[in-house]
Amino acid sequence: MRVLAAMSGGVDSAVAAARAVEAGHDVTGVHLALSRSPESDRTGARGCCTLEDARDARRAADVLDIPFYVWDLAERFEADVIDEFVGSYAQGRTPNPCVRCNERIKFAAVLDRALALGFDAVVTGHHARLDPDGTLRRSVDPAKDQSYVLGTLRPEQLAAARFPLGDSTKAQVRREAAERGLAVADKPDSHDICFISGGDTGGWLRDRLGSRPGPIVDADTGQTLGEHDGAFAFTVGQRRGLGLERPAPDGRPRYVLDISPVTSTVTVGSAEALDVWRLVADRAAWPHEGVVACEAQVRAHGGVVPARAQAHGDELVITLGSPVRGTAPGQAVVLYDGDRVLGAGHILATG
Which parts of the sequence are marked as the site Interaction with tRNA (predicted)? Predict the structure, then answer.
């Protein structure tokens, strides 16, 4: 099989490519240049897509003795991921850029180009499993499972994907990298939004959206507890960094409940007010009819809650068996049966 190995410069993608070579496939490595102005070096575990990452990917390809190319997708990444990220926050939503990147870059732009060039599949270092029938499952390493960020992929995208690491723990992957002589064996994982290398999402958004002052209002009393200079700097469920000028009347901590970009109002309230029992999502990947008993996950590394899901036209209505907190429009909801992904959608509304 002729496969394209997406090599980020990290340990996971390097070992995934190595396993594809060992399996006897005709492997070509490709590094995706996603930044218009890549930084020279990573700082600890912050960010990715730096010149250092590109060099690490090339060195890994040299060790594996496979052809290696760099594809410049910076313009596509900016339009499909970064611009949407900024626009979502400006509209009061909380997007997940990793989900969008997988949907629109790695398994749309890259996969489409790979198939057009005659490749049979794309290999990535995601920690997830694929059954022969195309069913997506969780990784055997729950701490590193990435099925959530892959949950919205369509069946035809999964059919041309290969995830060689799904049956291994991260510790096993690092040991294997060292045994193979890959210099990235001990390289830290990236934990931040790749295009915000400093980790200051609020400041990064402020630079692009400008200052938009408004009140911070208590949901119970309607009192103004403080002021802010941009609602986009807040996320539903946030407690710290609210900048309240006076405490709430009951003296209890306050959390962000709602963000209104039209009036630039941030509404805060008690923790209990964050409880969400119902989600409405689009049908990004939901082939089922009727009511389906399942488990719902609304964060990449969050827990699951029992749920019942049913499609209504283009929307997916999910009733939760126990509440989740801090859930907001824009996030993905992925539905499971045990470790098997049943489908997913992007949250449109909560209740």
Answer: 126, 331
- Which of 48, 49, 98, 194 is catalytic? The answer is 194
Whether 274 has a binding-site annotation, put simply, is no
Same domain as 287, residue 269: no
Among the listed residues 48, 98, 101, 294, the single catalytic one is 101
Grouping H, G, I as helix, E, B as strand and the rest as coil, residue 199 is: coil
Q: Which residues contact 293 (CB under 8 A, 6 or more apart)?
A: 306, 307, 308
Q: How many domains does the chain have?
A: 3
186 is in an annotated binding site: no
Beta strands per DSSP E along 117-241: 121-123, 128-130, 136-138, 161-162, 214-218, 224-228
Residue 24 pairs in a beta bridge with none
> Cβ(91)–Cβ(50) under 8 Å?
no
> What tens digit of pLDDT does each residue of 289-303 get?
999 999 999 998 889
To the nearest 10 degrees (0 to 180), the angle between helices 11-22 and 170-179 is 70
Whole-angstrom Cα distance, residue 71 to residue 42? Answer: 20
pLDDT in tens, 137-155: 999 999 999 999 999 999 9
pTM summary value: 0.90
Return the bridge partners of 312, or none. Answer: 315
Report whether 7 belongs to an annotated binding site: yes
Please choose, from the candidates 178, 264, 269, 179, the residue with its C-alpha nearest in 3D space to the C-alpha of residue 223. Answer: 269
Q: Are 141 and 125 in contact (CB under 8 A)?
A: no
Q: Could you tell me the residue range of the domain that residue 296 belongs to? A: 275-350
pLDDT band at 41 (very low <50, low <70, confident <90, very high): low
CB 291 within 8 A of CB 254: no
* Strand 292-297, strand 332-337: pairing: antiparallel
48 catalytically annotated: no
Query: Would residue 98 show up in a list of annotated catalytic residues for this protein?
Result: no
What is the DSSP code (8-state) at residue 194?
T
For residue 191, being part of any structural domain is answered with no
Q: Which of 171, 186, 201 is the last residue of a domain?
A: 186
